[in-house]
Amino acid sequence: MVTAGLSKFTSRIRQNQPRLAEQQFQKPSFKNNSKDRVLSEELKYLNRAGQKIKKILETDNNGFHHGSKLAPPPSHGCHQHSLPLPPLLHHPIQTPAAAPVPDHLIHQLSTIRATINHLTSLQPPRKPSTAAPAAPSDLLIYTHISPIASSCKDNPALLHQYMNYTPFALCPNDSPLAEDLILRGCHPLPRRRCFSRTPSTTPTSLPIDPFSPLPEKTAILSHHSCKTFSCFAGLKSDMGFDMKVEKSRFLTYKSDLDLPISQLFELAKSAKSVIRLALDIGGGTGTFAAQMKLQNVTVLTTTMNLGAPYNEAVAIRGLVPLHAPLQQRLPVFDGVLDLVRCGHAVNRWIPVTSMEFLFFDVDRVLRGGGYFLLDHFFSKRTDLDKVFTPLIGKLGYKKVKWAVANKTDSSG
Model pTM? Predict the structure, then answer.
């Protein structure tokens, strides 16, 4: 396990660090000229066929009513396109009523219309006269590990279920569904026009002590196995709901891996720095933020409700939860934080490239001279030496504390 306390250099010093190669990845080129030619020929053939049927219908001498509306053919289990198409037949003034258009011609024409629509959607757009610039390599990498604005549509069943609600009424009780979408990268979720559900009891004021027992009936727990906070507190002591256990966290020194809050402030003071604003990534029930609040430091906590009401617990303690997944950009402006802490949520299970983007996003929100606390990070010893230590080194931060020891607990 590793506990790393890293100090970010000022902007001027950081700019002198060697820059990473930005041309290691190139946008792949896909050539499919033969397919384009086939699609083009199909479109030409179908357009000719459609014009021929149109001409037959317009010039027929058997008394067909030119103003008849074309009804869609009966469904035969095939995929039906619902794109509206303009009528092909002109309605002359004062045309006498006549027999309807034969069904087989209606079916043929509708089939041609659907086929043309389908082939048109498959045909790639025409290239502009001037070649578009190649996408930056980092954009290609990031869209691969965290698709931009596409993860929602990549989960249509869940998305349709989430948006299937009655507008201007009470929202469905579907918090787990929202959690599933967010964890699949659909974040931020689409907005809905319904009224959110609220618990039966609302706290009248912020708690004086953020380590007092969590009041009951202040959160909707119907989706969880435990229906009370005291039930969660009795499950596992490391879940964060037992305030008797949480009250001593981040205060004691049990091994070199621990960085008590008192030592953290001593390090900042010796560097003539200050800690006022911080972010705790994967902060559970917000205990780090609670301890820092007692030191007059404001800490935002990102957390997800993975099996327990972590967001509700953070809020009930008078703290600010951010319901944000790890793969998304930190919802904080550039260079405004004094400290960013990563807890157990940030560990070896995250793909290396995703972790690299996360670390540089941490750098984005930290001010010059700010601190990055990678708290109890765990991995294999070989991976620590060959992968993660060089990865952390890319930030160019000064190590103010670096401790390594064997992992002895079973968590993670």
Answer: 0.68
